[in-house]
Amino acid sequence: MAIFGGIEAGGTKFVCMVGSGPDDIRKETRFPTTTPDETIEKAITFFQQQGEPLAAVGIAAFGPLDPDPNSPDFGKITTTPKPGWAYADIGGRVARALGIPLGFDTDVNGAALGEYRWGAGCGLDTFLYLTIGTGIGGGGLMSGKLMHGLIHPEMGHIRLPHDLVRDPYPGHCPFHGDCLEGLACGPAIESRWGVRGETLAADHPAWELEAEYLALALVNFICTLSPQRIILGGGVMAQEGLIEKVRQKVQGLLNGYIKSPAILEQIDTYIVLPGLGNQAGGLGAIALAEAALS
Ligand code: ZN
To answer: For residue 54, what are the domain limits?
Structure first.
């Protein structure tokens, strides 16, 4: 059986994994994201010290990035505002050092592929994976293929109606202010209410507002992409009761218009948490490595 390396390259931490799937994770390590040199070298050393040969390596990274294998920038993070990381060649350096094929995509496309192989996306060909955490991102499969197109989706940066009387918070996104990420990511919650989200009680008005922004976004995605399921991951979704509020508001906003039992009757299995839990990211990277061989 082929064994793969996977890197979930996040803006705050890297998770490196060796294995072939959820029942076969042989080694795992995590460390903070510092400079590209230091962080990428640490990942390379981890894989070089594994006893067994790896068939391929997958990297599911924060973006924006270049996921096109035919592009000269394939394997690079591109225009990130994260200091030092713009045009960091994470994929090229790792693949050259290990001498094996590379799978490279966004963290959310990676997580979607992992969910497709082993989790909440099994058996579906068109579904979305969104992460609601330090940032907000979305990816997924469309007719059985990871979404790319022009570059890759940037679902966290769609614009939403923003009632400034009800919510005067100007938004957290350095590019757009009050886009979806600017209004609803973890740091936006903290900055709007002055305390970390996880310390806000389940009945705090913060969660009604958060659910509303997420539901507005989901309704836009449902109407444009017609996903068969939406998987919501990321730290903010750990908030008790939040996903139930989002489901209810999505039904309310759609107002019966989309005549599918998935939405009208089975919303609990239509908007779901990741089947792979907090391993969705690392296993997504393993799934990208596996796909790089096919
Ligand atoms: Zn934005």
So the answer is: 4-110+278-292
